[in-house]
Give the backbone structure.
Amino acid sequence: MSYVDSGQVPEDGNTTSPIWVSDRQAEDRPTSRPAAPASTYAPIERASLRSLLDHPKYRHLRRRVLIAIGAGVIAGILLASWRLGVTAAIVAAIADTVLRARSNSSVPAWRRASVAERRTEVQLKRLERGGYRTLHARAIPGSEAQIDHLVVGPTGVYAVDSEKWDKRLPVRVQSHRKLFHGPFNQKPRLDEARWEAAQASELIGEMLGREVSIVPSLAIYGPAIPWKVLNVREVDVFDGSRVRKWITKRERSLTDVEIEKIYEAAEHVLPARYPET
């Protein structure tokens, strides 16, 4: 409804209907519309397949394509069959996908202090089929300390700290009480690992209303370790490559229900050091 029809007068005092034909002479009207102002926005550039593959986020796809093409061409030439070449390319792409999934870390690379945690995490992933559950980089509330890997499974609960040491320096022990890396006494590191496990045990136990025993450990990468597993100051010390065997060779002590309850409690009382945003 126009202002003329309703009898109301707009606030600007103009009594002409917005759809009313102007009574100005034709020569008074503008002969053309004013030019549209120039756009201040940058032109949108279409993303090409090459630019996407060059992006760091998709570099693994470029590598996978190259691997598949290379495997397909080689197999096709050697076997003189393009069908077998295509099959080889597909198999190579699938294999690369599986390997990348197994080695992919839930802890972003820029957040890791060393590659030791990643190497341990890769081993622990293989335990999932056996009913083990793992939490990585879990903080001890009220401190700067963290448990690199907390493992809950049929054989018990374990706190694993991963260490990357200089391989040029020997590792030795004195009387099962002192651990040395070259001339450096590792007593503070052992005490820290034991304290972390004790704190986690107390927090989880309080939430569940029962005692939960957590075995502390140091998984060392780099120098040769002249023993399989050695308990030093109540902390199991071993070569990092033995993580899985160290956990699975023990007797079964937890049921599936207990594993799930302890895991959920640990997830609640031990916050992630690097929470995802």
Summary: Residues 1-34, 39-45, 105-113 have pLDDT under 50 and may be disordered. The longest strand covers residues 156-164. The CA atoms of residues 175 and 218 lie 18 Å apart. Strands lie at 133-139, 146-153, 156-164, 171-174, 178-181, 184-185, 214-221, 229-232, 235-239.
